[in-house]
Amino acid sequence: MVFFGDSITDLWKLDASFPGKGYINRGIGGQTSEQLLLRFRPDVVNLKPAVAMILGGTNDIAGNTGPMTPEQTAGNFASMAELARVHGIRVVLGSLTPVHHASVMAMRHYVLRPLQRILALNQWLRGYCAGQGLVYADYFSAMADERGQLRRELADDGLHPNAAGYAVMTPVAQAAIEKALGEANGE
Predict the structure, then answer these.
(1) Average pLDDT over residues 16-21
(2) Among 51, 65, 100, 115, who pairs with 149 as Cys (CB 3.0-4.6 Å)?
(3) Where on the phi/psi map is residue 30: left (φ > 0), alpha (ψ -120 to 50), or beta?
């Protein structure tokens, strides 16, 4: 099992969240889906995992490497999923997590990641998973408040989950992994 993505993956202490599982973390902070696609072969395919949990896209919306269209982001996710499928790797696509603006530090993340763009990408990810027989891990619904913002207690900086945030994400991820493994075994 490889967790693959940006800083939200990079900061996830997998050994603590999934004790004894031996999950591999291949997150790199700040990366966009374009950068993820470039390193998908060495960081996922070459490791030959049964399942790849792909979590990214928030930095696409923020424009970390320049403006990106929703179509470019979608194409990058589709390419990663296709590469995985060709190599017999089950795919879980994680939803983007919400953001909040409850502090001065959080405001920058919030301004760069409009809720409507997060919701639109999550809608595409969910639909793509349904159409391609992939598993969708809905972190957003588990972490959002009634306004669609990240619950304040789940991230200090408004974007990156803290220990409480990862505690909410862990069962969502584990259920998605089990579903992907079950589908691989014909269950």
Answers:
(1) 97
(2) 100
(3) left
